[in-house]
């Protein structure tokens, strides 16, 4: 009788033990309730699809790795293989953060960083093999918000991205979102202008 009960309880995930004063009488230990003893990652630590990131690097493998890692973290990701391509893409879309490599052919990485800073309010994180102090200082002075040397650890990169995006979101929320005067609407958050409901294409400086 007891052996058949024990087998049935085991199939249900219930543990049976025997009281020390009477080993013939089993005591029943129920299985743990869902939600107790389990740990789930808090939602605020994950990425969100509302954030758009641009990866600027001439190394195709780096672009693939970063795209995969950022997409898995639920970010929307675009990539550019050159400085010229990145500037063209940023004219057409708004990005919340740019991951920028310094060592690309045909363009000075520091000058590109200055241009991005002058034409966009996106957070800029430089990712470069150039790890000497002078390069880091020059990159930060050029407008970068952070500087990471290659090779990098993906968890650290994602943590720095989350930190930068928190600053970006706080900055956007601190000021007015839209201004409308006589049919002219300026969207400060999206950096867009419309007249009588029709969008107006702006130059990077505008």
Walk me through this protein's architecture.
The protein has 206 residues and is α/β, with parallel strands linked by helices. 36% of the residues lie in helices and 25% in strands. It is built from six helices and 13 strands. It has a five-stranded parallel β-sheet with strand order 4-3-5-8-9, with helices on both faces. The chain has a four-stranded antiparallel β-sheet with strand order 10-11-12-13, with no helix packed on it. Strands 1-2 form a two-stranded antiparallel sheet. α2 links the parallel β3 and β4. It is globular and about 50 Å long. It starts with a helix and ends in a 6-residue tail after the last strand. About 17% of the residues have low confidence.
